[in-house]
């Protein structure tokens, strides 16, 4: 889930990039000699931000391949959980630095004094895959086990002073996405007679998310962001990191998966996080998290004038409501699902 309101601009000049890399790699330069940029090309991996794959060579003949991400030109919706590239850099530096988990190598960040351009520099992994692409190597199971280990490690550390940079999800935050979706759906009211029933199911379950023991969450832990390289999970794109219930990350990761696969991944997560079965309230909290993810899918003001995108979002919300038993299967393939069926509390 990337922010549709982002508009990548122009990447920094070669001179500006070199200045930034000299800041970030000052320690390496002290040991290996001055650097020069030998190649630079756009990153093949789609992102909210412009990014380059850059090779630098030091005077001693050694070299490094870098992924350089740039914040310039990205217009974030203030209401969105996206906090920007500088926030992601701070999460790596102040929150994740002590985590006993596999993470991508982060060289550092820079802000060009001439342009104000902010950049984040990581190692570029030639063999990188999404965890789903690495499923034959156990990537999907490894991804949810990594997630469980993160949540278990972090839940006792959320009051660390360095973690004050993180937003803390509360009832108002969860309601925001419900209200926004209902507002955007108003022009399509005749097409979505089922929406209020699904909204009520979510509204009733928001207290479960608020009451759940909070931990550090990635916020957009998709199979793409659960990056696989060198035979292990190395999650990337931490700009939505926050304090909230771990079930949100699991709901994002398993969004739209086959039910059988979803249940297997939930069991793997529970075993890794709690050493056995899940707590009694886990299933209902997972449903609340899945509803949050479905309503949260709209977070861009540009949707206001984009009726086809709103309709597409609502169709996805309907699919999830049917999938998890909040609504019955419709008689046809339209959004005109019957409002009859089990009440939300029976879902």
Q: Could you provide a short overview of the structure?
A:
With 347 residues, this protein is of the alpha+beta class. It is 38% helix and 15% strand.
Describe, in plain words, how this protein is organized in 3D.
With 347 residues, the protein is α+β, with helices and mostly antiparallel strands. It folds into 2 domains: 14-123, 2-Layer Sandwich (Phosphorylase Kinase, domain 1); 129-346, Aminoglycoside 3'-phosphotransferase, Chain: A, domain 2 (Alpha-Beta Complex). The protein is built from 10 helices and 11 strands. The strands form 3 sheets. The protein has a 5-stranded antiparallel sheet. A hairpin with a 6-residue loop joins strand 4 (106-111) and strand 5. The longest helix has 17 residues, at 195-211. The chain is globular. It starts with 13 loop residues before the first helix and ends in a 24-residue tail after the last helix.
Structural key phrases:
five-stranded antiparallel β-sheet; disordered C terminus; disordered N terminus; Phosphorylase Kinase, domain 1; 10 helices; alpha+beta; Aminoglycoside 3'-phosphotransferase, Chain: A, domain 2; 347 residues
Q: Please outline the major beta sheet.
A: 5 strands, antiparallel
CATH superfamily of the largest domain, by name, is Aminoglycoside phosphotransferase (APH), C-terminal lobe
Number of domains: 2
Question: What is the 3D form?
Answer: globular
Biggest sheet strand order reads 1-2-3-5-4
For the residues shown, what is the average pLDDT? 89
CATH architectural designation of the largest domain: Alpha-Beta Complex
């Amino acid at each position: 889930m990337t922010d549709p309101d982002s508009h990548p601009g122009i990447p920094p000049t070669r001179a500006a990039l070199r200045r930034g890399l000299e800041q970030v790699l000052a320690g390496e330069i002290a040991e290996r000699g001055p650097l020069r940029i030998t190649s630079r090309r756009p990153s093949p991996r789609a992102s909210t931000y412009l990014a380059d794959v850059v090779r630098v060579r030091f005077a001693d003949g050694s070299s490094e391949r870098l992924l350089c991400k740039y914040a310039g030109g990205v217009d974030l919706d203030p209401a969105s959980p996206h906090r920007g590239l500088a926030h992601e850099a701070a999460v790596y530096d102040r929150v994740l630095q002590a985590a006993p988990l596999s993470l991508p190598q982060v060289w550092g960040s820079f802000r060009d004094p001439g342009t104000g351009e902010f950049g984040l520099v990581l190692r570029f992994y030639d063999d990188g895959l999404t965890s789903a692409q690495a499923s034959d190597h156990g990537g999907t199971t490894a991804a949810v086990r990594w997630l469980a280990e993160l949540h278990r490690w972090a839940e006792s550390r959320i009051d660390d002073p360095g973690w004050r940079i993180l937003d803390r999800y509360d009832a108002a935050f969860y309601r925001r996405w419900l209200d926004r979706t209902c507002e955007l759906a108003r022009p399509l009211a005749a097409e979505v007679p089922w929406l209020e029933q699904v909204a009520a199911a979510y509204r009733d379950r928001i207290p479960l998310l608020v009451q759940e023991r909070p931990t550090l969450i990635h916020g957009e832990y998709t199979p793409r962001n659960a990056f696989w390289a060198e035979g292990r999970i190395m999650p990337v794109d931490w700009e939505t990191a926050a304090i909230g219930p771990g079930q949100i990350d699991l709901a994002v990761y398993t969004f739209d998966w086959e039910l059988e696969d979803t249940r297997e991944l939930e069991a793997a997560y529970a075993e890794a996080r709690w050493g056995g079965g899940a707590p009694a309230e886990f299933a209902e909290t997972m449903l609340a998290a899945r509803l949050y993810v479905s309503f949260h899918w709209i977070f861009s003001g540009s949707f206001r004038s984009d009726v086809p995108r709103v309709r597409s979002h609502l169709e996805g919300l309907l699919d999830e409501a049917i999938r998890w038993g909040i609504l019955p299967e419709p008689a046809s393939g339209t959004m005109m699902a019957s409002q009859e069926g089990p009440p939300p509390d029976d879902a």
